[in-house]
Amino acid sequence: MNFDGFSVKLIEFLDHYLFSIKGTTLVLFFMFAIIAIGYLIGKINIKGVSLGTAAIFMVALVFGHFKGVTVGYAGHEGCIAGWAGSLSTIDTYFKMIQNMGLVLFVTSVGLIAGPTFFKNLKKNATSYILLGALIILSGSIVTLLITMFVPKMTSAMAVGLMSGSLTSTPAFAAAQGAIGEESPYYSEIAVGHAVAYPFGVIGVVLFVQIIPRLLKVNMDEERSKLAPVGEFEAAKGPESKLFELDKFGLGAFAITLMVGLLVGSINIPLPGGSVFNLGATGGPLIMALVFGHFGKIGNISMKVKEHLLSIFQEFGLVLFLIGAGIEGGAEFVDTLKVYGGLIFLWGALITLVPLLVGFFFARKVLKLSLLNNLGSITGGMTSTPALGALIQSTGTSNVASAYAATYPIALVLVVLASQFLTYVPNLVG
Predict the structure, then answer these.
(1) Does residue 426 sit within a domain?
(2) Cα–Cα distance between 400 and 407 in angstroms, integer?
(3) Per-residue pLDDT for 312 more than 70?
(4) How far is residue 170's CA from residue 279's CA, in Å, rounded to a whole number?
């Protein structure tokens, strides 16, 4: 019996004879099971390289496939649909977990990076802009060539591959908006995105861990090249007169997140009738950088305790990886069965070329320090999981400054590129 058939039989047996886990209870069970198993696998260390929290994403992919077979996914009914409750409701729960994790993570990163961000930006602004632009440009060129010269490759499929390879949901949404639901190729964007997304996550996570080991750098020396957060916090003077909402800073965190979501929801018109906004990533990130830098609003302290930020950063990343993995895993195997393994390789190429081009440009031309280089690349690749892996492997949150400086540039450009590339024709049929 194959794995899928065994999964269905196991669910039916457990549900009938032992216990019944459905609805929100099922979602919570899956969530904590993925966390526990993921951390165990993430501890496996091979020559100094481990998946860390990214292992949670891989476990979530497996659970996502399991969920797709049994319960189903968008547009496809599972073998025992209805067993766990409404499919749309379960999908909504996991999407909420993903979005909750995303906003917790980026807000924490912004508040941590805020005290050093503007000084770092002032020093390296041109480098960050050039690097972010080059990464998206190189990814776009690879996508353009794949669209034009790979037989039977549609622009919709190729742009989906690019949005997945760069783990960019805004680019995915922009491409869908540019093509329109009435297009017969509309669904191919989602197919390409689903195939390329897993390697888009894992590839960048491994890259930022492997490069320092290949170069055999002294990590203490590299960390010393980054400005320590405390240096700039101390320069702001005493804050004893500021009003604190609570002793941990949870209220300040909530205000930052709330304002960030509002800013991220502001729509900016683009050519062609579509709109662009910073979304649930860009809005909270930018406002967290601002509040993290100034540390107050009037007489209200916006300081959040460091240990709380560390918890939110880790837990947010974990929740995001669970939601993204469940969503991607539900369709991943079925898509490969239909379109073959070659499409996965094209997606991997769109991930690897910008990574390598960006790294060597930052190293040889811009002369960025290694950790600034890698931090910038995680921003240029719009890779939240890779930033988490980089913070974990380097032992410092100061790399978040480079990520935060490059990310907005890459975010805007990848959205514009995805819209442009939907109009590129295939030249070989």
Answers:
(1) no
(2) 10
(3) yes
(4) 8
